[in-house]
Amino acid sequence: MEQANRNERDLLLDIRDLTIQYRTDNGVVHAVGGLNLQLGRGESLGLVGETGAGKTTTALGIMGLIPSPPGVVTSGQIFFEGEDLLTKSETEMRDVRGGKIAMIFQDPMTSLNPVMTVDRQIAEMIRLHRNVSDAESLTLAGDMLELVGIRRERMHDYPHQFSGGMKQRVVIAIALACDPGLLIADEPTTALDVTIQAQVLELMKRLKIQFNASMILITHDLGIVADICDKVAIMYAGRVVEYADKRALYTHPLHPYTIGLFNSVPDLDEDREELAVIPGLMPDPMDLPTGCTFHPRCEMAVEDCAKLRPEMAELEPGHFVACPVRARMLGAAQGR
Q: Which terminus of the chain has fewer Cβ atoms in its 10 Å neighbourhood, N or C?
C-alpha cells in the first residue's frame, strides 16, 4: 500500500493481501479480507474502526495467535524484518512473541496470572528470551517495574493488590521486558478511568521513544490516535479503507466512512442538538455486501459501488483510499 519504491530496509512490517476467516457451524465469518498494511521502523500506526471491523483479528494474525479451529488464515503474507511470519513453525513463533513482537491486551484485569507475584511474571518473560539466571531475571523485573513508575518494593505483590492503572503498567513492563521491535496495543485504556488513561498513554508514548520501538495502537478513539500515532489506517468490515499520515487524514479525510467518523465526534465549538450519525449498522461478517462493503450506508454510493470491490488508490501523496467515487471527484476537481 505504501509507495512501491519505499526502501525495504525502512520497513519493519509488511502485510500483503491478508485474509482471515472463522469457520463456524453457523457459517463463515469473514473477519479480515485482503488487508494490506505497512509500518516503518520507529513509526506508530493507529488502527481505527468500529467493533467488529477486524482490528484485533489483524493483531492476532500478526502474533500467530488466531485460534484454530475455528480461525483460518486463508491467504496472504506477513513480513516482519523481511521474514514471512506465516511460514514459521509454532516453535519459531514463540521466539518472535515477546522477544520481537509484544502485545498489550485490552483488559489488564485478566492479562495477569492471579497466583504469581508480578516480578515473577515479568521475570518469566525475560528468561524465555534472554540467557540469564533466575536471580538476574528478577533484578531486571524490578528495573522494569521502576521504569513504568512502580516502586521496586512492590515487586513481590500479587495482581489483586494493584489498581487497574497499575496492573496495566505491569502488563506494559512485561511487553517491553525484552525490548521488542514492535509493540501492539489493543485498546490498552478501555477498562481505565479518564485520568488513568492519560497517564498510561503518556507512559506508552515515552517508553516507545525510549525503546525506539514501532507501535500499532488499536482503538476506536480518534483523540488517542491524534495524540500518539504518526500514521492512521481506518478499517471497515475487515478491510483498510483509508491510510495516511495523521495530519493528512485529520485535516482532509477522503473516504465517506472516515468523514462519517469525524462528523460523529462532538465539536465543543459548535452548537448542535444532535450528533451526525452514519446511517445503518456494520454488516454481518457472515454475509458481507457485494462490491464496496460500505455502499449500503454511503450517501455517495453509485450503482457500480454494489458491483465492484474497490482497490486502494493513492489519491494524494501518501494518502490511500478505497473509494472510486471519491477518486473520480478528486480527479475532476484537479482537472485530470
A: C
Instruction: Return d(Cα 243, Cα 40) in angstroms, integer.
Output: 14
Cross-strand bridge partners of residue 215: 44, 183
Residue 156: inside a domain, yes or no? no
Report pLDDT for 8. 59
The CATH number assigned to the domain holding 326 equals: 3.40.50.300
Identify the bridge partners of residue 16 per DSSP, sorted by sequence position.
77
The structural domain count of the chain equals 1
Residue 249 lies inside a defined structural domain of this protein:
yes
In 3D space, the residue among 86, 29, 31 whose CA is nearest the CA of residue 62 turns out to be: 86
Residue that is written with C-alpha cell 473520480 in the block:
328
Q: What is the SS3 assignment for 184?
A: strand
Q: Say which residue the cell 507501535 belongs to.
A: 215
Task: Give the range of the structural domain holding residue 18, as residue numbers without chain letter.
Answer: 8-100+180-333
d(CA 86, CA 175): 22
